[in-house]
Amino acid sequence: MSLKADFELMAQYNQWMNARLYAAAAALDEAELRADRGAFFGSILATLAHIHAADMHWLKRFAAAMPGVASLDAVRAALLPPLVRGIVSPDFGPLRAQREALDAVFVAFTREATDALYARPLRYANTAGESHCKRAGLVLRHVFNHQTHHRGQVTTLFSQRGIDVGVTDLSALIPECAG
Questions:
Q1: Ordered DSSP codes for 78-140
Q2: Entry pTM
Q3: Coil, strand, or helix at residue 46?
Q4: pLDDT in tens, 9-40
Q5: What pLDDT, on the 0 to 100 scale, is given for residue 127?
Q6: Rounded to 5 degrees, what are φ and ψ at 49?
Q7: DSSP three-state, residue 167
Q8: Cβ distance 167 to 155 under 8 Å?
Q9: Which residues contact 131 (CB under 8 A, 6 or more apart)?
Q10: Rounded distance, CA 81 to CA 97, Å?
Q11: What's the chain's Rg over C-alpha atoms?
């Protein structure tokens, strides 16, 4: 499987899982969303906000390094949210809308990108101002891994509240083999 096909699947998985998590979160009241549950970022809402903010930071880096990639135009025009490092509780409704829009960007980006683009170096500075140069595909792999890691934390927080978000396995989206 090429990186392109793999990343297209990961972007679809990201979108599918975020839709499930945000649907479950929408069933909770604000107090439950904002309650400090002892997780790394405290609350369900803060963890969801961290995932969104980190995704925006990474996509902004891709957008800056790849000016010809049209699917990243919306990211170029968007404001960069602060990274969520503490218990930050944005409003759920706008965060959900921003998440849906960002997930659409991930899908469009992975459809537009090529294996050659993923093999290119990605030069960027992190939030501490440190410069890095890494293969773009490996950085995108990190982004998808980061999302999965923190979504696992959110599903645990839901499970502790007795909320089942259903199947979370990537294998649910992998097509069956023909014959």
A1: SPPPPP--S-----HHHHHHHHHHHHHHHHHHHHH--HHHHHSEEEEE-TT--EEEEEHHHHH
A2: 0.93
A3: helix
A4: 999 999 999 999 999 999 999 999 999 999 98
A5: 86
A6: -65, -40
A7: coil
A8: no
A9: 123, 124, 125
A10: 14
A11: 17
Task: List C-alpha distances in Å: 41 to 37, 47, 49, 124.
Answer: 9, 5, 9, 26
Residue 84 has pLDDT above 70, yes or no: no
- Closest by CA position to 56, among listed 84, 33, 32: 84
**64: buried, middle or exposed (CB in 10 Å: 19+, 13-18, 0-12)?**
middle
CA–CA separation, 140 and 100 (whole Å)? 19
Q: Which two tokens stand for residue 67?
A: 């000016």
With 0-12 / 13-18 / 19 or more C-beta atoms within 10 angstroms meaning exposed / middle / buried, residue 26 is: exposed
